[in-house]
Amino acid sequence: MKKFTQIICVLFTVASMSAQQEKGIMGYTNWLNNWTEFKPNKVEYSEANQILAGNISTSTKLLKKNVYVLQGNVYLTNNAVLTIEPGTLIIGDFETKGTLVVTKGASIIADGLETDPIVFTSNRSQKKAGDWGGIVILGDAPINKFGNVSSYNLDLDPTLTTYGGDNAAGNSGILRFVRIEFAGKKVKGAGTFNGLTLAGVGNKTILENIMVSYSGGDSFGIFGGDLNATKLVSYKTINDDYKFTQGAQCRLHNSLAVRSSYLSSNKDGSRCMEVASYEKKSETDFTKKQTLVIASNITMLNDSENINADIQSGLVKEAIYVAENASLQMKRSVISGFNPAVLLDSKTEINDANLKKIKFEEMFFNQCKGNIFTEFNSNNEDLESWYGNSVFFNVYSQSDNKETFIDIFNPKRPDFRLQLGKITASSGNR
């Protein structure tokens, strides 16, 4: 009888944990432990003893025993494979704004371990967002520009930065248990690099357990391609956490975006997630697929200790922006502390066709000043009525962050999973 009771207790515990994980990032244990770093400016990194510069045109392996510095724009070319051992440290040079570009046909195998991640960071003593370039991966998967090809220029060599093609199953390698810190350099008159740029990248590429922190641009910039990604972390980026455009087809699961009222930009165009089908309508082939993001178990939050005051001060904008012609299907996700939670492009008509393209189901909207609005329109009654319908199982709450999440202010091992029972919050508080 005692053994049977113990079994029931175990089953009850597992069921309770399962209930806890229904919305937002999930896992019976905190999958952020061991490989992430939430205070990278406090970490003492070793000095570089190897230089990476120019073109890498033959397959090369980077070893954990060395520390590498990226000097200037470094291109992996000629279908070469760059293999990086777990635990390897690569430092982006501040003076030359080091950037790693994996050109079309080449691939990167950065396969770290939970206990031994691969780290890309800055070589400045006082590290700041935008210290170096970032990582750019260019593939041959479809984009929706005319000719199915484009070039990622900024200050890069245009002959080495083309991307796009017809290979949705393209394979640009592996990024797993990788951290990218303080990237996102500004290029005068051209824009800003992202922590990780994925342009025309195909679905055989493995993208798991990647953390981009303190990026001067977007954390993850996704231009076209066909991607599967899980356990991505964007932490206190200046611009967007996740930006999708050029017909990207992306399935994003169990991922996190943490913004700061005082570090993340509060200007228009900076949010957790931007889903757009194009930058320039004139360059877009509308016979091709437009951007589609299928996102599940995503947690997006502003880590403010007084979110209402920050919203009132104008420091907080929307969490998600969905542009004209783009599609977003989001399930079992958490949006906490924004103004509002979601903003739809003013050109998006509120009709059956568009509401089928923009779905929010089993969501947890918390501490948001309004939930779903159309841009420049303060009347959102139709949208609230639609997404508030019980058939979608969306939940609304006004709980403090400390009550909502397990332990987000733990400096070493924060836990951004929902507190047990929060998913049962009243749906009447809109």
TrEMBL record:
The lineage of its organism: Bacteria, Pseudomonadati, Bacteroidota, Flavobacteriia, Flavobacteriales. It comes from the Bacteria. This is T9SS C-terminal target domain-containing protein. It comes from Flavobacterium gyeonganense.
